[in-house]
């Protein structure tokens, strides 16, 4: 797809392309199912469209100035709530279809041959259809939108900071002779750049937890059972108290230090300072897989192409939309240029 765009000088919406990639990828890994959203023709798919509508309208409930409005619309089944109901129905129908097909597939086998997560999940005794359907939707939500959101803002930031892109290219070139897994695992500067990108533009800008019992936070704040506690990785990542006076700068080096041999070594932050992947018992189970995917995509694309925003306005600044997951308003239109940086 990128080769075609480079040859034809066509404009692609990188945000859409990355969402399609992440959707196909998570479906293959989680369910052994390929929805083929990333075909060169960029087909419209009912489920992906419904999923997008459902996540957007769900998040808008939290931003309603008066909460009773959306509840009234839901009661009378009108407006955005009617659209949300239809979208959710389509999402659940698709997810149930996957669960039923997977159950039939497993019923015809004497042993577990499939390596996808849903097969292992069903085979472990979690056979309730509604519960399995919720798991399918959860996998897609966590694997599709978060990875694509992180990569969308990452490619924007490295375009704006060519010195960072040059360091990334240098590292990619150094690791290019390694086996794929070792290559990706050893990309320290790319890893730091992704962490820094997600500090400024976290894939989940705000998140909330419901207290199941009375509790007390470390600072003494009393939390009663049934209270919704919301925290904001977007705000945390921009606090001068945590990140210093240069918090607004895109600076991968803040995650790195030199070892005795003069090579970069990654220095992580504790998950409560950097809650992009949550923390404690609720820490993201797919964190390592997400980094593996993102570093592989970064290396694969930058080895062959340069991503350039398709705007004539040098001062253009994309707008950050905080839905359930982060979005770039209007997408991220780009032009793709072939790179000769690895030809020598």
CATH level-1 class: Mainly Alpha
Quote the CATH topology.
Cytochrome p450
Which series of helices and strands comes N to C? HEHHHHHHHHHEEEEHHEEHEEEE
Helix content: 40-55%
How many E-type strands?
A: 11
- The name of the CATH superfamily reads Cytochrome P450
Low-confidence stretches: none
Organism: Gossypium barbadense
Protein name: Cytochrome P450
Cofactor: heme
Keywords: Heme, Iron, Metal-binding, Monooxygenase, Oxidoreductase
Report on the structure:
There is one protein chain. The protein has about 350 residues and is mainly α. The chain has a single domain, classed as Cytochrome p450 (Orthogonal Bundle), CATH 1.10.630.10. The protein contains 13 helices and 11 strands. The strands form 5 sheets. Strands 1-11-8 form a 3-stranded antiparallel beta sheet. A hairpin with a 5-residue loop joins strand 6 and strand 7 (about 265). The longest helix has about 30 residues, at about 130-160. The radius of gyration is 22 Å and the shape is globular. InterPro entries: Cyt_P450 (IPR001128), Cyt_P450_E_grp-IV (IPR002403), Cyt_P450_sf (IPR036396).
Secondary structure: elements and pairs:
Layout: H1 2-8, E1 12-13, H2 14-31, H3 46-62, H4 68-76, H5 79-107, H6 117-123, H7 129-160, H8 162-175, H9 180-185, H10 188-200, E2 207-210, E3 215-216, E4 222-223, E5 228-231, H11 233-236, H12 240-243, E6 256-258, E7 264-266, H13 287-302, E8 305-309, E9 320-322, E10 326-328, E11 333-338
Antiparallel strand pairs: 1-11, 2-5, 3-4, 6-7, 8-11, 9-10
Helix pairs in contact: 2-7, 3-5, 4-5, 5-6, 5-7, 7-10, 7-13, 8-10
